[in-house]
Design goal:
The complex is a heterodimer of chains A (212) and B (10). With 212 residues, chain A is mainly alpha-helical. Chain A is 71% helix and 3% strand. Chain A is built from 8 helices and 2 strands; from the N terminus they run ααααααβααβ. In chain A, strands 1-2 form a two-stranded antiparallel ribbon. In chain A, α1 runs parallel beside α3 and α4 packs across α5. Chain A is globular and about 45 Å long. Helix content of chain B is 0%, strand content 0%.
């Protein structure tokens, strides 16, 4: 565990909590892509099956359970409790265009052809594209509340910090997880455009982040 | 195949 990994996990947790509280307190999920949240719940489900097979540390177990609980709770808020505020019109990204290639690739490119390993690989590939429906929805509606922008900032920072963590681990212990690193780079690249907008518009204090 | 990483990360 190094500072990059820990701060990455903290950013991830902050992002998930920001989103959950935003929906819970505003009693609305307007501007939020339910599809992305379902994909994230799927990412955690397929990645954390090892909760039942291997114990790494209390921190590892607790964080996995917290991520799963918050992810499913958020999906529950969007599709059940506050479903009348869910803007399915704007949340029109075809997730099958993500799921099919990701599933196919996880069968082709993995570390071992075992169910747990393929599901883990699937979750890594899926996570790199899971935010696309949300980013697509923002470009479609042309704007995002600043709280949603903060959510995306922390979510983007989390994997960027993991990249630093992998650099550090490669440098100090020769650890190198090719699948996770390549996917992490792709994932972070998708946020670059958003980061630019965030630091040029949201921080200027304009309440909403309106896209060009 | 590459060493199966310890999956000690989230």
């Amino acid at each position: 565990m190094n500072i990059f990994r820990l701060s990455g996990d903290v950013c991830h947790l902050i992002a998930i909590i920001i989103l959950f509280l935003k929906i819970w307190r505003s009693k609305s999920c307007a501007g939020i892509s339910g599809k992305s949240q379902v994909l994230f719940a799927l990412v955690f489900t397929t990645r954390y099956l090892d909760l039942f097979t291997s114990y790494i540390s209390a921190y590892n177990t607790v964080m996995k359970v917290v991520y799963l609980l918050l992810a499913y709770s958020t999906v529950g808020l969007i599709f059940f409790r506050f479903r009348n505020s869910y803007d399915s019109e704007s949340d029109s990204f075809r997730v099958e265009f993500l799921l099919v290639p990701v599933a196919g690739l996880s069968f082709l490119e993995n570390y071992a052809f075992t169910p747990l390993e393929i599901l883990w690989t699937f979750s890594i590939y899926l996570e790199s594209v899971a935010i696309l429906p949300q980013l697509f929805m923002i470009t479609k509606t042309g704007e995002a509340e600043s709280i949603t922008a903060h959510y995306l900032l922390f979510l983007g920072l989390y994997r960027a910090l993991y990249l630093a963590n992998w650099l550090w681990r490669f440098h100090t212990e020769g650890f190198y997880d090719q699948i996770a690193v390549v996917s992490g780079v792709v994932q972070t690249i998708f946020y670059c455009d958003f980061f630019y907008l965030y630091f040029t518009r949201v921080l200027r204090g304009s309440g909403k982040m309106s896209l060009p | 195949d590459l060493r199966i990483n310890p999956k000690d990360e989230l």
